[in-house]
Design goal:
The protein has about 290 residues and is an alpha/beta fold. The protein has 12 helices and 5 strands. The protein has 2 domains: about 120 residues, no CATH class; about 140 residues, no CATH class. Helices cover about 50% and strands about 10% of the residues. The chain has a 5-stranded mixed β-sheet with strand order 1-2-5-3-4. It is elongated and about 80 Å long.
Length: about 290
């Protein structure tokens, strides 16, 4: 049977040196957990003991940094874990983020663990934004989460959707709180996809969110016609859109996500300009155009 881990209340003043931290963790004579305020200087010193760990994932560190600097990093029970020698077994990404954010973080820290315990750490699946939304009883959580990710990327100015960076769960939930209409965009995306299954729901929902902010009535008509294809005469942009994605998918099997959004925006702009469009063409390397 493994030894019980004693959990101590927050320690104030916060340890400032590795010697103070080692003394705090060794008081119980076995594995122990404390809640401490971990300053960047001490996090940097702990990283000197990060001698045997998996490769650092920069994107994860950047996610954590944004949450820390925004003041939305919660005390969630996840701990910085150290072995009996004080070496870091788990938490290197959090430590790097604290250093880069230059902000202290209140966190659990566990010391006195056997080195072999590292092999069982982080063996579970990381919770996604969709998981978090589902736990909060959000309707259409998977679709809403996918749209949030793309809308957030759009708002960051990445019109090619090529940067390997995504919003954290906290950032996604903040975006949904600011724009609850994204829920309606998800509903329309799912309905349109059911009627015309050639464009991903996330592209449809992102486009609906962007178009609805410009003209809600025309946006509603656009997506209704995109789904059913009725009342569209030769040369109509929506007809050109439906024809393009249908034929391209039949020929190539898959269309890059950003091309789907480019096609949607190009057709929308042509509708807004009352401009006939018999063939929809988008340069492969071009950024997604801005909807008008």
């Amino acid at each position: 049977m493994s030894a019980a881990i004693a959990v101590k209340a927050p320690s104030y003043p916060a340890p400032r040196t590795l010697r103070e931290l080692d003394g705090l963790l060794s008081n119980s004579g076995g594995p122990s957990a404390h809640i401490i305020v971990l300053p960047p200087q001490l996090a940097a010193r702990l990283l000197r003991r990060n001698t045997k760990n998996r490769n650092l994932r920069t994107a994860v560190v950047e996610d954590y940094v944004r949450d820390i600097q925004a003041g939305t990093w919660p005390l969630n029970g996840e701990a910085i874990k150290l072995d009996v020698q004080g070496n870091v077994l788990d938490g290197q990404h959090r430590l790097h983020a604290i250093v880069k954010a230059e902000e202290p973080v209140t966190t659990f820290i566990v010391g006195g663990l056997p080195p072999e315990a590292q092999t069982t750490m982080d063996s579970g699946l990381r919770r996604t934004t969709a998981d978090a939304l589902s736990l909060a009883d959000e309707t259409n959580a998977i679709t809403v989460a996918a749209i949030l990710r793309k809308v957030w990327t759009w708002q960051q100015g990445d019109r090619r959707f090529t940067r390997r960076i995504s919003p954290t769960t906290t950032e996604s939930r903040a975006l949904l709180e600011k724009h609850p209409e994204i829920r309606r965009s998800a509903e329309i995306a799912m309905r349109t996809r059911a009627a015309f299954p050639h464009i991903p729901q996330s592209a449809l929902g992102t486009a609906h969110f962007l178009f609805n902010a410009i003209d809600p009535d025309e946006c509603a008509w656009f997506f209704q016609r995109l789904g059913d294809g009725v009342e569209l005469s030769s040369g109509h942009p929506i007809l050109a859109l439906r024809s393009r994605v249908t034929s391209e998918r039949a020929k190539e099997g898959r269309i890059a996500w950003e091309r789907h959004l480019s096609y949607l925006v190009s057709a929308w702009n042509a509708v807004r300009e009352n401009r006939p469009l018999t063939r929809l063409v988008v340069r492969p390397d071009a950024p997604v155009p801005s909807p008008k």
